[in-house]
Amino acid sequence: MTSFTKFSSIEPNPLVSIVINNYNYDRFLKEAIDSALNQTYQNIEVVVVDDGSTDNSREVIASYGDRIVPVLKENGGQCSCFNAGFAASCGEIICFLDADDIYLPEKIAEVVEIFKSSEEIGWCFHNLRWVNENAELLPQLSTQRPTVECDFRDLLKSGKLPPPLPATSALCFRRELLAQFLPKPISKAVKSTDFYVKYMAVALSKGSFLGKVLAFHRIHDSNAATLRKDKHNVYTIRAMEFILNGSWIKQEFPVLKRFANKLVSIGISLQWQNNRKDIVIQDFIRKYMKFSSFLEQIEINLRAFYHYIKSTLKPVN
């Protein structure tokens, strides 16, 4: 069993940074910012990272004056927003929020209590409730887990996946933990992915899953992948996410190479399911295999075949 990592004691009333990433979501952005500002827990800062929007997002951001910390940058994708938001933040605890999603008022108060409960907890995730474009409740939860402390580090080091992890707006971290792997690598090939931050967090630290719905995840026609009906595009997006994140993890944390190989094998299987050859994906696979041993290459392809057989008839969400 991996020994526990101890973090610094959380202050009695810690500053919490809510980092909102936005790109062309002016129609949702105000509701996201208001939900962050209207928390029952008061010691917060709201950092809004605008990723080169071409709509009216920056006018919305300007309307809040000094109530928020604006970060206005050129378009670089969600990964670059995590980097920029983290760099601009000051909180002991960092919580991410997609600009099309909504926090419930008690979210930050609940999360702070989890982090204060143990110096070994580096991350806290929770359930999300799906809502439609008008913020009306849909029947599904994105994840349905009870409140439980979790340690997946040995699992990932052995090359296995953790249980399903929720989307960006359910992810909260100690600053000390994020500092171990941010800034993260970025690529124009994948502009929207939270895989790296949540996989690296569970790979490096014990954490807690809070079995409550503390945010609404909005489902609409512009979602990057969730519940999209254009199967081929979803397969392409997911394949690239798995392959690129596997490449980044192996490069930055070689001790996790078995887990990285697992991610790449899943990405390859998704490409096979897509029945389309993507030149960019093929290039990333070639580069990854070039720096893998012959036995690793065999294992990756065998795993890819296994996932292909297992998942061909299962829809990608």
Concise account of the structure shown:
The chain has 317 residues and is an alpha/beta fold. It has two domains: 16-218, Spore Coat Polysaccharide Biosynthesis Protein SpsA, Chain A (Alpha-Beta Complex); 231-311. Helix content is 40%, strand content 20%.
Query: Span between N and C termini?
Result: 33 Å
Low-confidence parts, pLDDT < 50 over ≥5 residues? none
Question: What is the C-level CATH assignment of the largest domain?
Answer: Alpha Beta
Total count of strands = 10
Radius of gyration: 19 Å
The CATH superfamily label of the largest domain reads Spore Coat Polysaccharide Biosynthesis Protein SpsA, Chain A
CATH architectural group of the largest domain? Alpha-Beta Complex
| Structural class by secondary-structure content | alpha/beta
Taken together, the total number of domains comes to 2
> What form results from the Cα inertia axes?
globular
Estimated helix fraction = 40-55%
Domain Glycosyltransferase 2-like: 17-125
InterPro entries: Glyco_trans_2-like (IPR001173), Nucleotide-diphossugar_trans (IPR029044)
Pfam families: Glycos_transf_2
Protein name: Glycosyltransferase
